[in-house]
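Anyone up for a design puzzle?
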């Protein structure tokens, strides 16, 4: 049996939130082990992340994100980078400090010398420039302010148009940032020799993510990007918004019960399809993220009816966290095992569910449920199983 793939993620305080979380949870869902390391931090320590998005000003705004746990020792990883199949370096301000850290630069240079896939987003291309890895005209994109850096380091600048573009030049995979995660995941999997199989006679499954203002930041974006990375056509819809409009997301950093997580503003999550054009028959799966958005969705009869229609047509229905409220209103939880966190256990039981108080995600027939965003890797994995999508190396 082939050894499982292992990816190293180079982290630090104020790395971009999505650019760390999406690769972490998406790769874990596909059976790839991800070690998160940071110079000066030990396993179990946390890194603070930052939300970067445009909120009406000429430059992106930075907001506080989640706390991401370091899982491996930096020195041990740097001593033998050949143990890893790829290196992911999120963007964010932490790359400025790491570009002057000899150990971090040496680690990036080692991966470049090994010609192992290097994923660089937003501002982390600065580290490859410091490591001399852009010499010789390597084609590279990044956030617009990095163009002089890329060119001064001997690279060839590629405009990030569209924002969802991931530029692959040999082992270097670069992008403007988190809008490109579907392409990043697809190209990283290909670079690591993965084979994505949608099952006999299947392919291009369509997934709908239901959203509204104050949808949970991770619970909307991670499935949206991860499923897109394995070839699904993923759309986002909201009954009160048109295609191209945005839903504001909310961040709830994990807090053990009975503590209540503080709510903070997250990224914008863009609606990709008009509500009037949404038909359950056009999709294979619906994903209902949590946050406070389900409190709005449940007041719209068309949203409740749509979820019910997905279930009646035998489609995959996947809900996480407060998304269970919408499923309860649609009558699809009766007699089903349901992984539910404390906030929705009562409503899940009232809806007739057999509540499973366990970590991870639970599949019961075509229903997938999970308690909260820390369960996203298992949640996405269960959805992939029901859609018949496998990834092998």
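Challenge accepted. My sequence:
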């Amino acid at each position: 049996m082939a050894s499982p793939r292992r990816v190293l993620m180079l982290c630090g305080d104020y790395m971009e939130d999505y650019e760390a979380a999406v690769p972490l949870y998406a790769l874990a869902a596909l059976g790839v082990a991800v070690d998160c390391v940071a110079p000066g931090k030990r396993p179990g320590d946390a890194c603070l992340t930052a939300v970067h998005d445009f909120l009406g000003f000429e430059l992106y705004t930075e907001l506080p994100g989640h706390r991401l746990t370091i899982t491996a020792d930096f020195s041990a990883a740097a001593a033998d980078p050949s143990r890893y199949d790829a290196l992911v370096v999120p963007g964010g301000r932490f790359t400025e400090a790491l570009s002057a850290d000899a150990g971090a630069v040496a680690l990036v240079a080692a991966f470049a010398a090994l010609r192992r896939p290097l994923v660089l987003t937003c501002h982390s291309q600065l580290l490859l420039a410091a490591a001399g890895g852009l010499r010789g005209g390597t084609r590279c994109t990044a956030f617009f302010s990095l163009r002089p850096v890329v060119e001064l380091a001997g690279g060839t600048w590629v405009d990030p148009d569209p924002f969802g573009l991931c530029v692959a030049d040999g082992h270097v995979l670069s992008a403007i940032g988190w809008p490109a995660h579907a392409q990043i995941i697809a190209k990283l999997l290909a670079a690591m020799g993965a084979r994505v199989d949608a099952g006999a006679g299947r392919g291009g499954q369509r997934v709908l993510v239901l959203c509204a203002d104050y949808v949970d930041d991770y619970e909307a974006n991670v499935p949206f990007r991860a499923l897109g990375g394995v070839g699904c056509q993923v759309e986002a819809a909201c009954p009160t918004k048109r295609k191209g409009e945005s839903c504001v997301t909310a961040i709830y950093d994990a807090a053990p019960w009975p503590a209540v997580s503080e709510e903070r503003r997250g990224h914008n999550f863009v609606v990709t399809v008009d509500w009037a054009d949404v038909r359950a028959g056009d999709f294979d799966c619906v994903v209902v993220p949590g946050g406070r958005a389900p409190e709005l969705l449940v007041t719209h009869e068309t949203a409740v009816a749509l979820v019910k229609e997905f279930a009646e047509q035998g489609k995959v229905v996947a809900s996480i966290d407060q998304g269970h409220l919408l499923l309860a209103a649609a009558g699809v939880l009766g007699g089903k095992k349901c992984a539910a966190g404390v906030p929705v256990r009562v409503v899940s039981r009232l809806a007739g569910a057999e509540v499973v108080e366990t970590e991870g995600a639970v599949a019961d027939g075509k229903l997938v449920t999970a308690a909260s965003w820390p369960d996203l890797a298992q949640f996405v994995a269960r959805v992939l199983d029901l859609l018949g999508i496998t990834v092998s190396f």
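A detail worth pointing out: Residues 312 and 332 are 9 Å apart (CA to CA).
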